[in-house]
Amino acid sequence: xxxxxxxxxxxxxxxxxxxxxxxxxxxxxxxxxxxxxxxxxxxxxxxxxxxxxxxxxxxxxxxxxxxxxxxxxxxxxxxxxxxxxxxxxxxxxxxxxxxxxxxxxxxxxxxxxxxxxxxxxxxxxxxxxxxxxxxxxxxxxxxxxxxxxxxxxxxxxxxxxxxxxxxxxxxxxxxxxxxxxxxxxxxxxxxxxxxxxxxxxxxxxxxxxxxxxxxxxxxxxxxxxxxxxxxxxxxxxxxxxxxxxxxxxxxxxxxxxxxxxxxxxxxxxxxxxxxxxxxxxxxxxxxxxxxxxxxxxxxxxxxxxxxxxxxxxxxxxxxxxxxxxxxxxxxxxxxxxxxx
Length: 340
Hints:
This protein is of the alpha+beta class. It is 29% helix and 23% strand. It has 8 helices and 17 strands. The chain has an 8-stranded mixed sheet, with helices on both faces. The chain has a 5-stranded mixed sheet with strand order 12-11-13-17-15, with helices on both faces. A two-stranded antiparallel ribbon has the order 1-2. The termini are far apart.
């Protein structure tokens, strides 16, 4: 019996490139920094490594009770879930082992975490698992991070001043979205790039070389259950959105809601409420990094009258502020309404 015929691969299949890995992209872009000697590149690799571990853990969340609450909400921190605690440990461990980060500010802890790398030139502020409250329901979650070059003395522990330099002092920021696919989106101040994780190869590949946000959009994202607590300007603006027949889309995870609007255009709103009169989202490791990405993608992020990146940080490392972020024309329109 003759062997079965085989169909040779098409020329297109052979010619299809494997793509640019995150590792290769980081090395290429390192030249954009006049002071770069590899430390920032290593930090980004460390964050990517921890996120790969979290891809596995998030996919198993419904199987082993890892989404269960393990700690109550504190004055400065959100309720602690088992997977959120796992994310905190994974990212702190990766940043510690990479040796370039001297301290971490995490949503999961009230105080600065000393990694022991006192010669490290950078500090990292992060929300290890944004949206973890919805893990039991297969809702997309994410990690949000911000990187600063330290200003305290090398050779000693980091200080609060390293984290309170202001939003414009960020040298890199971004987020990882754990959803139907996993994406890492980040900026170093030279545009925004997006990478999609290929689990069979264990690599992030460049899928969106230069992400830009549409100047307008047809989506508004907010928790309308807080409608009667919203300030008047927010209700007025949202009423206009509804009159235009814009679509309401709200997941409840900042990373997920922002990610959708980054691609489609739109606006995300978390105004002050009765429960959170100063706003709910944390400035240093949620609002600053999302605002940095937004400005680099052509979007706008404000707290109302002020640009988020210009909001001065206080001594409270878990400072909360309102957040309105998205397509430039929509956010500027909201500001006009707020000023009336």
